[in-house]
Amino acid sequence: xxxxxxxxxxxxxxxxxxxxxxxxxxxxxxxxxERITSRxxxxxxxxxxxxxxxxxxxxxTFQLVSDHHVQRGPSFPKPIDYLxxxxxxxxxxxxxxxxxxxxxxxxxxxxxxxxxxNGLEFITLLNISPRTPETKVAMVAPTGKGRLVHLSIxxxxxxxxMLGFVHHKATHYRIHIELGGIAGVVxxxxxxxxxxxxxxILDGDAPSVVKFEGQLYESGPVWxxxxxxxxxPGTNRASR
Length: 240
Fold this sequence. Notes:
mainly beta, 2 helices, 14 strands, 7% helix, globular
């Protein structure tokens, strides 16, 4: 662990690759000693919601406590409600097939390795040296009863970007999802292999995620997440 986590509130935009705004996001992280609660929420124009709450501890290493991920609304063909706990319990809630039917709740168990980092992908990247050729961590993919996969994280060099008129460089990381087993062999053939994820990190004493491109759900389109700043309606107060 290179950079311990604290409390903050960040604002994000989610767009398609043509630049069309799809959703506005909030990343709220609250620290209580060694225990951190991080919540990332996207509110879509069409009323859809992507809401993920991750609880973890930090002491020499990051340790997942739980990750609760909900996706619902027109932007998501199949709603999900997955709760992953560090003890390996996976709780899945599915709405009834017909209006008025009760929610179905199922619990599955997977033996999870200690480096299972659901909801901690960004934080993991903030704590990787760009000189490390490859880093691997595990996560539970929210498909079926839950599937344990591994993420292969590799630096791809630096890309230039600007904040206003100031030039910066960010380290570009590629994340490849390794399905493993027979599924990993046949996935590229039958079209089920997820697209690689791409994340750009502004390095330094306090590194920051500045851009993400990837799929937010299985077989979904590639979307882009970037930092955003508030806009003040009316007169520009800063000019006064």
